Amino acid sequence: MKLTLHDIEALEQRAFNAWPARQSVISGGWLLRLTDGYTKRANSSNALVAGAPFAGVLEEAEALYGRHGLPAIFRLSPLAPPEVDRQLDDAGYRYFDPSLVLQTDLVGGTWIARHGCGDGVAIDERPSDAWLAGFAAANGVASAQRQTHDSIIGSIAMPAAFATLHDHGEPIGFGLAVYERAAVGLFDIVVAPAHRGRGFGQRLVAALMAWGKNRGADRAYLQVRAENVGAQRLYDRLGFREAYRYHYRVPGST
């Protein structure tokens, strides 16, 4: 699934809006995000536009994150010029956590016929206390980070779906979807380890895709770590294909 750089710019914007940072600074064509160190997504510097000039950004980022007691982390998508990766490598920043952005088409109804629409999945458009607690626990959020985690969720400005998958009345899976400009993003899809390999993950994803389609989405996207081969197999069955890749550069001492 080949995207133009303009397509990638638009998709990156949606992903930033779907997982908002508590604070952000725009420097030329770069977006520097800060959220108390919780998640690299919300605490990294990102190119906003293709070929964004990098002159002075490294020094500015190191100063900004340093004032907040955080390491300067760079998330490099295809929008970042190739020389940025080389410059960060030369400065001692190590390559870390390569990830894929996957996308699938929601036009038509054939995918619902193939994958269903997520039986057993309850979707709310506001996060309940029970959902926040279950979602945080399923994703391994430490108690010290709960306030920041919940603050990010509460700051989502776009229409969102908060999904809970039940099996015999027990909540065993959680997921988040955010709709913006005819696309639905899926985030932190997780099923309890004891229930994996039984099709529950597919039901959870299908339910969120159906919610997005009902909102008007003609495509769905998500981010997955390159090392997570099991999740990639699931998403492949649901029609997701690689759109582009990104990785992080973190200080060598981190």
TrEMBL record:
Q: Which InterPro entries match?
A: Acyl_CoA_acyltransferase, GNAT_dom, Rv0428c-like_C, YpeA/RimI_acetyltransf
Which Gene3D superfamilies does UniProt cross-reference here?
A: 3.40.630.30
User: Under the GO molecular function aspect, what terms does this record hold?
Assistant: acyltransferase activity, transferring groups other than amino-acyl groups
Q: Where is the N-acetyltransferase domain?
A: 121-254
UniProt keyword annotation of RNA-binding present: no
Does the record carry Acyltransferase as a key word? yes
The domain of life for this entry's organism is Bacteria
Keywords for the protein's UniProt record, in alphabetical order: Acyltransferase, Transferase
For this protein, the record's PANTHER family field holds: ACETYLTRANSFERASE (PTHR43420), N-ACETYLTRANSFERASE DOMAIN-CONTAINING PROTEIN (PTHR43420:SF12)
Protein name from the UniProt record? Acetyltransferase (GNAT) family protein
**Species:** Chelatococcus asaccharovorans
> Taxonomically, what lineage is the organism?
Bacteria, Pseudomonadati, Pseudomonadota, Alphaproteobacteria, Hyphomicrobiales
